Amino acid sequence: MYMSRTARFLLAGFTALIVFALYFPILYIARLSFNKAKSFAWPPRGFTLEWWTGAYHASGPRDALLRSLETALLASLIAIVLGTLTSFALTRYRFFGRNAVGFVAVLPIALPGIVTGIALNSGFNRSGIKLSLFTLVVAHATFCIVIVYNNVAARLRRLSPSLEEASSDLGADIFQTFRFITFPLMRSALLAGALLAFALSFDEIVVTTFTAGPGFETLPLWIFNNMFRPNNLPLVNVVATVVVLFSVIPVYLAQRLSDGALLGASGR
Question: What is the mean pLDDT of the chain?
């Protein structure tokens, strides 16, 4: 589509403005983590690593980081298993209620986090299950499954079933076919889904607020509980920067994996 130079200039300027509005606050928080002052004052004053050193030695942020990593890893592992099985069932088989099952599978990602959190909290309480790491991992897994399911299902739809049928015709059983044919072709999609699920779980706060046990703080919860304490504000900036890094890196790797897989498929 042809666009005049003026239109291209205006579109580029508008895009740059939107990108600036989206990412400048994040970059500013990262800059404040090296700021000598404890406030959000503009412009930043000087440069120091004091707050990063303090955050490293403080037990609160360190324990919260370990809990966030533990929760995200466990939720991602559950999502890998259940999301993969669900994607195979809904893309490779036809059965009564298939569309309804597919709708239920993707519904958790569409529901507001506060609705999911309240519903799970009420369900756990009525079942007599005390809030703990277990309830938190289950809660995170409910929406992480959708991420893995979408990635794996999209890859399976692009894979021809004839490859698996040919493997069966040559005498391979279902496990050999999966190991040598299906899994290598869907491996990048599975890893990309796992990375996205990890990133989504790591920075989740709304569902976490309703399903974490007493005294169990993940990194986002630690930020929320300390951001209104002036003395802890510099540490909050450091921890917020760490959360951004732990969220951006998996998303970037997942995008690279997806792009590489698409290029490989087009090359074949």
Answer: 83
